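#data-curation
PF: Archiving a pair of folding outputs for the training set. Convention for this channel: one message per protein, sequence first, C-alpha cells after, nothing in between. First:
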Amino acid sequence: MIERMKSIAELQRRTAPFPKPQAIYVDGDTLWLSSRHTKKFYAVDRATFAVTWECVVPGDDSVWGATKVGDDVYVVCGADAVDVDARRIRRVRPGVGFDPAFSLPCPDGMGSHLSHDGTSLVLSQWYPQKLISIGTDGKPGRVLTAPHQVVGHCYAHGTFYLATTTNEESDDYFIERLDPATGKCETLARLGFSARGLAFDGANFWTNHREADQIVMFALTG
C-alpha cells in the first residue's frame, strides 16, 4: 500500500542560490542547475553552493532539464507557458554558452528532462508519461512508458530512476525504478514534496523542491 510506503532518507536540504531551481545534474563537484525565475543556466559549486558560472537562456526561454555528455551539457528549453508546446533540445558549452548551431525539436514539441543511457539522450515527457530515446539525427527511437507523470529522471546502475506524481498540486511525489530491459516499473519510496528534476552523483540522489527554493540530496533506504 502506498500509505505504508517508506520515505526517502534526506541527507541534505539547502537553499538554492537563486529562486525556483528547476533542472539539476550532478557533475562531480559541480551542480548544473537552472532557475525558472531568472531564466538562467548555472554551474554551482556542490560544497559551497556558490555560483561559478552562469549564462542567459536564449529567447527568454527556461531550461527544464539537463544532462551532461562528454564536455557538453544538453538541456531542454522552451517558453514558460502552459499552453506552449515547442520544446527543443539545446547544447551548452560550459564556460562559453549556448551553441547556436545545435537545436533539436522534442517529439510532438513536448519534453521536460534529459538523461543519457551510455548510448543515447533520453527525453522524458511529463503528461504523456514517456521516456524517448533521441538519436544523433534528432529522431525519436525507443519509447518506454511510465505509469505516472514524470517530473524528473536519471540513469544509474543500468536502469532509469523517475521522480513521479499523480497530482502535481499535492505532495504525493514518489521515486520509481523503470527497467529498460523489461519495461517494468516499481515504486520505491515516497518523496513527500513537489520535486522537480532528478540526478545521481554515484552514491546519492538529488532533486529540487522548487517552490521552497531548495535543493535536496537523499538516499533510498532498504
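PF: Second:
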Amino acid sequence: MVKVTINKSILELIEGDITEQETDAIVNAANSSLLGGGGVDGAIHRAGGTKILEECRKLGGCPTGEARITTGGNLKAKYVIHTVGPVYSGGKKREAELLANAYKNSLSLASQFKLKRVAFPSISTGAYGYPLDDAATVALKTAINYLKTHTDVELVRFVLFGQKAYQAYDRALQELVK
C-alpha cells in the first residue's frame, strides 16, 4: 500500500478487489448503457445485486467521460458512481481528456453527495484497451488536481487488480509527487 497526502486528503494505492471496499462509494468502470458488462462492471453488478441494475435502468445510460450515481445495493459501499471511460484507439480521439473527465466527474459527484471516501478501479485499462502506464498518469494527475482544490473528499483510494496495475500506478505516482 502506498499513501500520500494531498492538501488535507489522502490518496492511496492498494492491490485488491473493488467490490470489497468499505468506502462511501466505489466507482464502476461502466459501459454507456450502465446495464452491466464484463470486468469491474460485471463484478460490481454481481456483488451489488439487482438494486444497482434497477437504478441504472432508470438512468438511461451515461455518455463517455460523465458519471452517474446509484445505491451500493449489497456492497459494503453505500453508493456506486458509474463512469464511462473511453475506448482507446491510438490516443488521437481525445481519449486522455475523456478519461480525465471520467475521474473528475466521479469526484464531483462524490462532493455533491457529501461522500468523504471514494475507491476507484483503473478505468478503461481492461477491455477498452487504454495503455496502463498512460491511464495511471491521467488518473492520478486528475485526482491530485481535484484534491488540491477540494478538501471535502478525504480519501481517494485506487484499488488495483493485480501487480502489473499496482506497479504502473505506483510508478506514475512517484513521478507526479517528486
